[in-house]
Amino acid sequence: MNRRRFIVMAGSGVAAAAIWHKWPEQGFFNECRVNLPLDIAQHDLVRAAWEGIDARQVWDCHVHLVGVGDRDSGAWTSPKLDSIWHPIQRLQKLFYLNAGCVHEAPGRLDQSYIERLHNLVDGMRPGAKLMLLAFDRNVRTDGKPDWENTSFYTPNSYARNMARQHPQYFEWIASIHPYRADAVPALEQAIKDGARAVKWLPNTMNIDPASARCDAFYDLLAKHDVPLLTHAGKERAVSGSEAQDYGNPLKMRRALDRGVRVIMAHCASLGEDRDLDQGAQGPSVQSFDLFTRMIREPRYEGRLFGDISALTQFDRAEYLKRVLAMPEWRHRLLNGTDYPLPGILPIYSARTFVELGVLEQSAVPVLNAIQQHNPLLFDFVLKRSLRLNGVRLPARIFETRSFFDRALHVLSPAP
User: Which residue among 56, 365, 380, 410 sits deepest, i.e. has the most Cβ atoms within 10 Å of its Cβ?
Assistant: First the structure.
């Protein structure tokens, strides 16, 4: 067993502790296999997944672009992720590197991540694209960068440049902290540069979405009809300021009421938050139930949406079943994968969906084989294979291009 594999497997004790009640059906280590065997690529399950879907309209709206800056990308990761004094963060990094099938050779990490994305997209149908997420630094309330509480940084320029250099594979989503002194001009520049949306992770970036400090930023988003893709609910994957209450879905009312199209990542499917509609000390309620309340409010029709990224993880599976049970939501849902997380094998279990009664047992070995080669295709085929009362998620959830094209159409001059 080579050193890299040993370290990853030794570190997997953290994952094992988190999933003690369900032994990973595919183990802990991603073998990073490449092309699917022909019999799997042409399997009826895969064919059925693409049925009725125009791959040219399929834009995965939640793909993390990460790097260490070894090719002048400007990307950065915290030294804590390599420190023995921060073992949890170190183990997380090892899992993410393995999930993204990154080569650890000097000067090759950033490039190998991009090459793996190319390989995965090539395994989809022609025309499918990934929307690469930039990720801004944590910013203090005085507007200055807070590197101490920043786990990783992916500048807008890197995401933009990758989309420009590889237009057949990528679109890009900017990330701009609203407390920055230059937040508004930075947003204006990102829009000019073709950003399709803006990404926030309030819990770890130290963003209070209900703060008046965000108003000018919200107003510019609304003016140009640029969506805000924001994490909602509990955050576990990224360390930072640890302000979990900033992930409260109700805090996004301020943006919605100012006309912003808001996409709540994962449909706020983990954790609990205070019911702020009952006051600052309101009772704790499941974050998903707060999202449900908001999406049912008529005033947010056409403004509030949810992405279904990460809902294929075994500990969110019950929420994906609940989403399947709500056909009235389907025009409000967008597909994403939260890559590289689908490459972390221990946190996924196709069997869980069999136990929930929404997947045929015969699909499990096929899905497991797909995940070993192409986690993006695995996530897609799994979602399209789920059935509740004979009904599956419709094509429109996966054909997200028109949703994100809309912003640039607003900016383009009339012919």
Answer: 380
